[in-house]
Amino acid sequence: MPPAHPFDDDKLREECGIFGVVGVKDAANFVALGLHALQHRGQEAGGIVTHDPELGFNSARRFGYVRDNFTSSDVMESLPGPIGIGHVRYSTAGSKGQTAIRDVQPFFGEFSMGGAAIAHNGNITNANALRRELIERGSIFQSSSDSECIIHLMARSLQRNIPERMEDALRRVEGAFSVVAMTRTKLIGVRDPLGVRPLVLGKIGDGWCLASETCALDIIGAEFLREIEPGEMVVINAQNGVESHFPFRRQPSKFCIFEHVYFSRPDSILGGRSVYETREAIGRELAKESPVDADLVCPVPDSGTPAAIGYSLESGIPYAMGIIRNQYMGRTFIEPTEQIRNMGVRLKLNVNRALIEGKRVILVDDSVVRGTTSRKIKEMILDAGAKEVHFRIASPPTAWPCFYGVDTPQREKLLAATMTEEEMTKHLAVDSLKFISLDGLYRAVGESQGRSKDCPQYCDACFSGEYPVTPADMVEQGFKMQPAAE
Ligand code: SF4
């Protein structure tokens, strides 16, 4: 599958998007549109489950884009009913690069009180231990996905109804989860106690919907009501509306700060503010922290664009589209060899030579992961005749892997895990390289006092190494967390 971003192998990747709706005619159409709007969160595969009072539960799970799979009348007519949920994914825990269709969500379970389907965004950090325990007690797993643990835990619960069984199951689960689930009549949404991954609530006509991001509400014309709170469970019935409760111990929120930087779409709303505005604020903060004399500010398209605009506005240095992205790159060129990958950057991006020649250029990108792409882009800019190249990065150095539902290379593959900023500057052979500070990033997302040392307001583990939930499975496999004193 072609990646969402031209350099997806050199970016962190959000692994899932989820959507659910109840109380509408032909729910599957709404789910498909919602998933289409969330395609940037997962492009490898997608699935939809619906329920019809006469025809029962139906599901379709496919590899590839939503637009290629969930538009034909054959598929959509096989998904009747007024309630449905869906999921788009990259490969998640257990199946990276070799996903089987059985790993594609939503997962379905038949219980004594009726069926239920669930779709999960995030990562269960104690999934290995849970899976071992469940298998020892007789569970038969169908997939290699960590999310399937939730269904088996629900099956073992003694509670009387499905929402209560879900609560029971999720109390055993550690890590990050935003979940949408459905029974025959109820749509259920849950966020983990730290609220690491997003989930929002919307209203459409007499119906209701849940989505990873507000852009998925916009596409179906739904009204954005609010974010589901960390630790909140909502149970929605078309007749009775939304029931909300908080089944978990309350904890300070740790929303993923990288959603603001890169994962979420710029037209989504997070924390009451548009993601675009936040990214522009990040660029402004970056310009204050790391000014440099130059002639042009250029974004690395597309994700660097709002921050580049912010940098330009704050610094007064003109903004220019110095790099143009070819929007129509297909899958033809996505091959796994290093040689083709390097060529791929040129095929997907082209330098606007007429603008760049003889100029001192500031390039603004959202992050540096492996650094391979940054190097390539720098070469392209110099080849086009730039006098100087200065990188400004809209996130702090990514030095730690994420274990909460984001695909990250192993720690030793992260450029910032093995090099200081000075060493990275030399390695990339640029005139200067500066990352926004953690405090600067916190200010840009609306925390005027910066990052609280005692209780950081967000999850920022991929920058700080301070993991809000111990990644138990990874520690068991030898992952070394940062000593607290460091
Ligand atoms: S480790 Fe980074 S990417 Fe993962 S949830 Fe935390 S901030 Fe987000």
Topology:
Elements: E1 13-14, E2 16-22, H1 27-37, E3 45-52, E4 56-63, H2 66-69, H3 73-77, E5 83-89, E6 107-111, E7 114-124, H4 127-136, H5 148-156, H6 162-172, E8 175-182, E9 186-191, E10 200-204, E11 207-211, H7 215-219, E12 223-227, E13 233-237, E14 241-245, E15 255-256, H8 257-263, E16 269-270, E17 273-274, H9 275-289, E18 296-299, H10 305-315, E19 323-325, H11 338-348, E20 349-351, H12 353-356, E21 360-365, H13 372-383, E22 388-393, E23 406-407, H14 415-418, H15 421-428, E24 432-435, H16 438-444, E25 458-459, H17 461-464, H18 472-476
Parallel strand pairs: 15-25, 18-21, 21-22, 22-24
Antiparallel strand pairs: 1-23, 2-5, 2-11, 3-4, 3-5, 6-7, 7-8, 8-9, 9-13, 10-11, 10-12, 13-14, 16-17, 19-20
Bound molecules: iron/sulfur cluster.
Verbal overview:
29% of the residues lie in helices and 25% in strands. By secondary structure, the chain is α+β, with helices and mostly antiparallel strands. It has a seven-stranded antiparallel β-sheet. A six-stranded antiparallel β-sheet has the order 6-7-8-9-13-14, covered by helices on one side. A four-stranded parallel β-sheet has the order 18-21-22-24, with helices on both faces. It is globular, with a radius of gyration of 23 Å. 53% of the residues are buried. Mean pLDDT is 91; it is low at 1-7, 92-96 and 330-335.
